Structures are given as structure tokens and as C-alpha cells.
Amino acid sequence: MDDLDLTARRYLHFADREARGSSPSYEAWSRAVAGDRALLAQLATLPAPKRQPHLVFGERPGDGESLRHGMLDAWSEVSGTIMRRSTQTNEPARCGVLLPLLHRIGGPIALIELGAAAGLCLIPDRYSYSYSEGTAVHPPAGPSDLVLQIRVAAGRLPRDLAAPQIAWRGGVDLNPLDPADPDTAAWLTALIWPEHHQRRRRLAAALRLAAAEDVRIERGDLRGRVGALVAEAPAGTTPVVFHSAALACLADDDRAAAIAAITGSGARWISFEAAAWSRSPATFPNRKRWAPRSSRRSTECRLRSRAGTATS
Are the C-beta atoms of 148 and 202 separated by less than 8 Å? Predict the structure, then answer.
């Protein structure tokens, strides 16, 4: 199987396992790429991590012909954007599962996110939550401008679920994003799938809240910075390290080093990744569902990728 066949397989996997039933546009574009050797040849000129559909489709091709035109006739501009950008998708709805996990740990908490991007998941105490089984949670100061609608697929939430007491927060990312920057907002908006209108509204509100909070996000490699950030946690707080879809982006050796750094830091650990990514180097798993895990006790929470569905 040559490089073009592997890329075609990747796009078909994306169409079948992620886009189908969620984005007709992304499904159609993925199948168009997978069936077009000329398009696959263009993608083959990119480094493998840059060939991912989320990133390639950030240019919004529109339809099959526009996709072909962009990748064949305007490739210099399109490839420049792909090489300059990364996905760094922030989904604040993931906080709907983070909230009950932080509740289990109890405060005060020093919250540390690896791969924090614009820091939208570092402010779970600034959002309001409306869970489908009737639970509502608001920040201590009152209802937030952003209410996250979370469907509980199974299980029960704690009756006393409340906003976490976060005494300190910080993050690290290879490319930190400024939530107040219009260019950042435009790119993160472009990464949202065309049919997901509610997610665009959610992102805009979360960016405003994160900009007002002025969250500290360092530029650096998570493997080298996690220990230092944990060491900065104020006395009397419980350091909690979490990440979502970060380990999956690392090579096997780098992922193993990251896991060793996290487990060696002494912090509580919450991982929003496919389960295999948080254990050890593994083959590509089904990433349709993220499985949050705690380093000290198992959890039974799940979060559908990019959606607001929890099982607890």
C-alpha cells in the first residue's frame, strides 16, 4: 500500500467513523478526496500530521468542484495556510464532563491543562451548565453568558454538583492562542464543521469569557513543563492535570514520555482521550468517543467527540 492509498484510507475512515451522521459536507469532501488521485498526490506533498481532514477542510471548500480547484489551482495559498495553522480545536462543552470529575476531587483546585490552545476548557467555573436530567449549575457570581447544554446518556450526577473552587489555573501549548485576537477567533470558527451552528455560537461566547479571564498559557512542550506547572500550585490546593485530544497528536515515544511526566508529577490526572492513548503507545483506536480517566480511581464518564453528551 503506497502513501496515496494510506491517505485515501484515512479520509474514508474519517468519512465513515466521524463525519457520517454529523456533517454531510465533511463526509462528501472526505470521499471526494479519497477517490481522487490528483488530490491525494497534492496531500502527499505535506507532512503526514498536516494531511488530517480537520485541517485541510478549514479552508471551507464549499463543494466538490471548489475543493478540487483549491487543492489543484490554488494549492500554494491553501498549503501555506495548512502549514502555518494547526487544528487546536477548543470545545468548551467538554467541561460538562470535567465538572463532575472536579467535583469528585474537591477544592481548592490548581487546574493545569496540557495543550490548552486558547484556554476555553481552563474556565469551567465561568460557565453555566444545563444537564438533560434536570441538574443546573452556575458560577458563584450567578448565571453565565454561556450555558452549556449537556445530554446525560446514562447514570446520575451528584445532587450537590456545583461549580469547582479553582484557586489557580494555568496551561501549556506549543502554540498558545489569544482568545481576544480576531484572527484566532476566525480560525477556530473555521475549524467548526459547517452544519454545527450551535458550536459556533458556543465558541464565540467562550472566547469572550476566556479573554476577560486572561488565562495564563505558556508556550512550551507539555513533557517538559507539566512538572514545573504542578510545582507552582499554591500550598493547600490539589493540582489537577487534564488534557483533551493532546496525547493522540504525539508519536509513540513522545506520548510515553508525556505519560511518565504526568504520572510522576504527583497531580491528579484527567484524560479526555481514546482510552489506549492514556495507557501506553498503541495502534490507532476508534476515537469516536473520548474516555475521561482519573489517575487514582476509575471513572465511568464518557464524552462524545465534539458533542455535549455525557455518561456518568
Answer: yes
Residue 304 has pLDDT above 80, yes or no: no
The rounded distance, in Å, linking the Cα atoms of 229 and 267 is 10
Q: Determine contact, residues 248/277, Cβ cutoff 8 Å.
A: yes
User: How many beta carbons lie within 10 A of that of residue 12, not counting itself?
Assistant: 15
| CATH classification code of 92-311 | 3.40.50
* Domain residue ranges of the chain, discontinuous segments joined by +: 3-84, 92-311
Of residues 173 and 293, more confidence is placed in 173
Residue in 215, 51, 49, 200 with CA at minimum distance from that of residue 117? 215
Q: Which amino acid is at 261?
A: A
Q: Reduced to 3 states, what is the DSSP secondary structure of residue 112?
A: strand
Which of 18, 31, 25 is closest to 62 using CA atoms? 25
- CA dist., res. 163 & res. 173, Å (int): 25
In this structure, which long-range contacts are made by residues 230-235, counting pairs with CB atoms below 8 Å and at least 24 apart in sequence? 230/110, 230/112, 230/265, 230/266, 230/267, 232/110, 232/168, 232/170, 233/110, 233/112, 233/168, 233/267, 234/110, 234/167, 234/168
User: Of 9, 213, 173, 6, which is closest to residue 90 (Cα–Cα)?
Assistant: 173
Q: Distance from first CA to last CA of the chain, Å, rounded? A: 42
Q: Using alpha carbons only, what angle is made at residue 90 by residues 289 and 140, rounded to the nearest 5 degrees?
A: 100
> Tell me: the pLDDT tens digits for 69-82?
778 888 888 888 88
DSSP state of 116: -
